[in-house]
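Hi Y.,

Following your request, here is the sequence exactly as I used it, all 586 residues.
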Amino acid sequence: MKRKRSLAALLAACLLLTGCAQQADTTGETAAPAQRAVAKAETADINTLALQDDPALYAEYDPTDVVCFYLTIRKGSAADGTDNTFAQVNTYRNTQGMTNVEKILTTALFQVGDETGPLSGEVGFSDYAANASLNVRGRTSTGYPQKSYRLTLYSSAGLWRGQRAIAINKHPGDPTRLRNILFFSLLQDVPGMTSLRTQFVHVYVKDETADVPETAFTDYGLFTQVELPNSRYLRNHSLSQNGNLYKANICEMYRYADQLKLATDPDYDLDTFSEILEPKTGQDHTKLLAMLDAVNDYSIPIEDVISHYFNLDNLTSYLAYNILMGNPDSNAQNYLLYSPVNSSTWYYLCWDGDGCLSYSEDEILQNAWTEGEWTKGISDYWSVVLFNRMLRVEKYRAALTAKVALLHTQITPEKIASLITQYRTVVDAYTTVMPDTINMQVPADTLEEIYNQLPYDTDTAYQYYIDSLKKPMPFYLADIETGDAGLQIAWNASYDFNGEFIAYDVQIATDWTFDASTLVWESKNQLATEAAAPMLPAGTYYWRVIATNESGYTQAAFDQVETATGVHTGMRMFTVLTDGTVVNAI
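Below is the corresponding structure, written out as tokens. Let me know if you'd prefer a different format.
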């Protein structure tokens, strides 16, 4: 009986629980879902990514905290081409127009320290043998008595601040010695751009390759160390280390089909290629040539080219910053092209700013080599195919104008003056003593005037930009040829952003000044881009064309002539021989 009652009780309990469960189901509650939907951000397209730098890199070191480099020069091996003396290294020249110039290398023991000497824990402290190769670097600067150098550390030496290739620049053409560090400091805050780490360094050299080997270090004065863009630079700045990176030597974004070829092409030559664009991260040029093909294919709308191959924020920042900083030598050179792995987008990177903010200096010093008027403002980039096509589109000009205005509010004379004050705590201590003071080309009082006026060059540059939008664009003069009527003269058409008619004044003179007494022929206010002049007697002549739009703004040609008194812009020179043959000067 007890067993039956227990089974009955168990059965009753089960029925009770079942009833409770059935009752709970009637309340309308349901079981939890197996999945829950969440909101997800849209996945970015690699081809639309903004170019971003790593700001932490610039906070790690104070550029006014001078680092000392100690270089003990020793001849290396003939096997690797470093068996040269320091004197031989310093004979290297690679001025503008020279091509395929072989570098002259030697070796050095590179050590880092302070004014007391190399420091423990720094590169080279425990080394006794050479740990780096050394050569002169630069182009125009190689003609100055004080050189700039490149050091390449051996793998056994380790890295200095994450860098194996170390450039130390003298900036002999810059009497302030601080423009380059100023340029890259201000660049750090420009949207859509990356900068370069820079540092003042005090260099000491002990030349053991001299005829009488040196036993003590010689003071070589103040240099600026600047980060070299290469694959390690890309990695240090959180960019695509194996992406494509090219340094422009002379590149106006033409196709350059005779020089720029795939590495698989039987006619490929790296030196020839590098005359235009120097590869920094490999020799797969497929993406580069596809981009240049598109830039130079006028059947493809420029809007499609830019949307597919470029980042507009980066393009406008590159142009706006160099325009506002008055850095005219940034159209065909002193820039880099970078494209990440698996991306078709190309970005402009800045390189070399020691010629910036020099408008007031040129006026103070009355420099004979002052650049032509077309270098001021947007016209400086008109010779570049990409920018020439881009700037004909109103929305792109508007985007550029907005970026110039934005940077003008950020890069103020006050900000520039503040940085100059900081950097002069270093520079003044070196430029007023040997060995730098003997190579300074500007008296102290004049240099002070340059420092005082330099911060306002951004205001001048901003106005130049606004004015340049109202002017006709520069153009090229063709070779003069002979014809039945005498001399055949032609030039490219100018362009006006506002669609105004452009008239041309053509002049031939016996002197580059084009003084009225030297004019031998002229044709004024003509709409055609060619003219016929009578044959001239044997002799040397100069000719120019001035374009004027309906609003009265004028523009000269890109061309220039160099004489004993300097470079004269907006003209060409030709010679008529005794037999009537015309020879055009290049």
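The two ends are 126 Å apart (CA to CA).

Thanks again,
Q.
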